Amino acid sequence: xxxxPKDLLDILACPRCRGPLVVEPVSLRCDACRLRYRVDDxxxxxxxxxxxxxxxxxxxxxxxxxxxx
Length: 69
Ligand SMILES: [Zn+2]
Hints:
This protein is mainly beta and 69 residues long. The chain is built from 1 helix and 5 strands; from the N terminus they run H-E-E-E-E-E. The chain has one helix at 6-11, and strands spanning 22-24, 27-30, 35-40, 43-44, 52-53. The chain binds zinc ion. Residues 14, 16-17, 19, 30, 32-33 line the site of zinc ion.
């Protein structure tokens, strides 16, 4: 079980919408995008195509239009 340092959490944002993330025990969740980013050995995997869709869909389907260009 890895715990992310607070200063790292402060700079983390969803790579898709740049919104805030909800910290979970082994993942980070974006409620706006309905995506969950996993944390591998304390390293957040902030990749939209690696994220898990909370509603069960394919994250790449919605990833084609970045919120910030
Ligand atoms: Zn997001």
